[in-house]
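Propose amino acids for all 140 sites.
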């Protein structure tokens, strides 16, 4: 195996690790968002046990709105990270794949259609990041 093949294999492995790392981060953000949405219910039970019925209703209404604002803030941050990191990862992937594709097309012009397919696959990362951001914003 020559040096170019080793470098390509290392870059492909790195991009795969980055992609799976981003997916794990998105899963973690979703889990944290689900946990944060369960927190107000526990606060409602505590408030109801400590105070009278009317005072508990007022406190929970105020506490839920404050908690909702906090959850919404983290949801917006998660959506921005999902789209932003997806776009950055796609830019890195397209830079590497595009340069390799142009070099390959320079040597063998008949593989131009195959090279464009690989560039389109790299560009799919932006679409996945955008869809993930929309899903997160739909939950907020």
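Proposal:
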């Amino acid at each position: 195996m020559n040096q170019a093949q080793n470098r390509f294999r290392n870059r492909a492995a790195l991009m795969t690790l980055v992609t799976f790392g981003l997916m794990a981060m998105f899963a973690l953000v979703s889990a944290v968002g689900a946990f944060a949405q369960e927190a107000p219910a526990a606060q409602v039970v505590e408030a109801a046990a400590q105070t009278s019925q009317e005072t508990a209703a007022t406190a929970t209404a105020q506490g839920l709105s404050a908690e909702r604002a906090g959850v919404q803030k983290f949801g917006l941050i998660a959506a921005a990270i999902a789209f932003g990191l997806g776009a950055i990862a796609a830019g890195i992937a397209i830079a590497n794949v595009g340069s390799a594709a142009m070099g390959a097309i320079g040597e063998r012009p008949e593989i131009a259609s195959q090279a464009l397919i690989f560039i389109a696959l790299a560009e799919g990362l932006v679409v996945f990041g955008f869809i993930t951001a929309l899903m997160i914003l739909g939950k907020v």
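The helical segments are 3-50, 53-107, 112-139. Residues 53-107 form the longest helix (55 residues).
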